[in-house]
Amino acid sequence: MKSKTGLMSLCAGAVLACCCSAASAADVVFGQIASLSNPASTSNAKGLMTGAQACFESINARGGINGNKLKLDTRDDGLNGPKMVEITAELVKDPAIVGLLSFLNTAGLTALAKQNAFGTGKIALIAPLQGDKTIVEAENVFPLRSGYGDELEALLKESKTWGKDTVSIVNMNIAFGPILAEVAQKRATELGLKVVSRSVVNFSPDTQPGTIREAVEAVNKAQPKAIFVIAAGTPAQEFIKAVRATPAGLAQIYGLSVLLHDDVVKSAGAAKARGIVLSQATPYPFAPTRPVIGEYQAAMKAYAPKEPLSFSSLEGFLGAKIAAEAVRRAGAKPDREHVLAALKNLGEYNLGGLWVKYTPQARKGWGGVDLTIINSEGNLQK
Questions:
Q1: Yes or no: is domain 27-146+287-366 CATH 3.40.50.2300?
Q2: Phi-psi region of 63 (alpha: psi -120 to 50; beta: other; left: phi over 0)
Q3: What residues are paired with 198 via a beta bridge?
């Protein structure tokens, strides 16, 4: 029989063991800024958040990483650039945040890149929904998706292949619009395509209707075989709806991944949206053509059963998987410094049939582009 003192010692030891166990298992938190409250970005923002959470929850259900649970701290900037900058500063100041994940907001990301916010803050930003080189090549940014230039190249080559050799370029006047329009003009000429008209549609609601009318008139006069819409949101949707009502609307329409097919179908209707070709900077999420797609689909079914499969939720899932691997390689102390170091030295990492490569010299995302088309029912197919 053990003495009272011995029993007390055993109890104290048990309590100490429990405390040590609890202390060793902590939340590893990644900060996300997703513009959930702005209608222009709600769909993508929700998808990114849902996919990332499904990934983290599936890992946590298997015990987490080194006993640590992965957590997503999501904050809403309303798709306001200065607000994103402000919230990012708050996240950087919070020592509990080990990294940043799946940011969405071109204006905010552009400002943060110019400020070198991630370099100065010594914090990683993983897989932003962004294809602008000035952003994804900024210090401590680790891209997943292909760049806008890669998408544009794939679309131009598709146009060339199918004999769509006279093209009109229509771009919005903000963000990637002006720069990519110049790239499209140059590459189209190099590929032997003739640019027969160029138009700009304004993002501002005050001037947008007039610029859309002018763009439609220019395209209708030029009668191209293909129309490249280098725009997103309302400017792109309203232009497509208007141009489809004219003789020029019979031309093949090409758009970037930021032109969401659901929004186009809602705006223009399935009949007018039919046949639009959209490039995709992440793989096709609706068929398990790669092991990681099957993994994503299983996680969504288990942890987000009411949410639809989508390109954005797959993107969030893949970004979270990269974050989880960085935590694993960060070892027993997955703090901000070690997570960042792990990412910088990740090398070529197989996510499950697609690869990213991060080294101290260069950080490269997937690099592939899938082309999809809107069918008669308003759905995307390859």
A1: yes
A2: left
A3: 169
DSSP string computed for 138-206 = STTEE--SPPHHHHHHHHHHHHHHTT--EEEEEEESSTTHHHHHHHHHHHHHHTT-EEEEEEEE-SSTT
Phi, psi of 115 (to 5 degrees): -80, -10
Q: Give the pair of three-digit tokens for residue 79.
A: 């798709």
Strand order in the sheet with 380-381: 194-201, 166-172, 226-230, 252-255, 277-280, 370-374, 380-381
Strand partners of residue 374: 380
The band of 250, judged by pLDDT with boundaries at 50, 70 and 90, is: very high
Is pLDDT above 90 for 168? yes
User: Which CATH code of 3.40.50.2300, 3.90.226.10, 3.40.109.10, 2.40.10.10 fits the domain covering 148-280?
Assistant: 3.40.50.2300
- Please list the residues that pair with 74 across neighbouring strands: 32
Backbone torsions φ then ψ of 302, nearest 5 degrees: -80, -40
Cα torsion at 222, 223, 227, 232 (round to 10°)?
A: 70
Structure confidence by residue, pLDDT tens digits, 89-140: 999 999 999 999 999 998 899 999 999 999 999 999 999 999 888 999 999 9
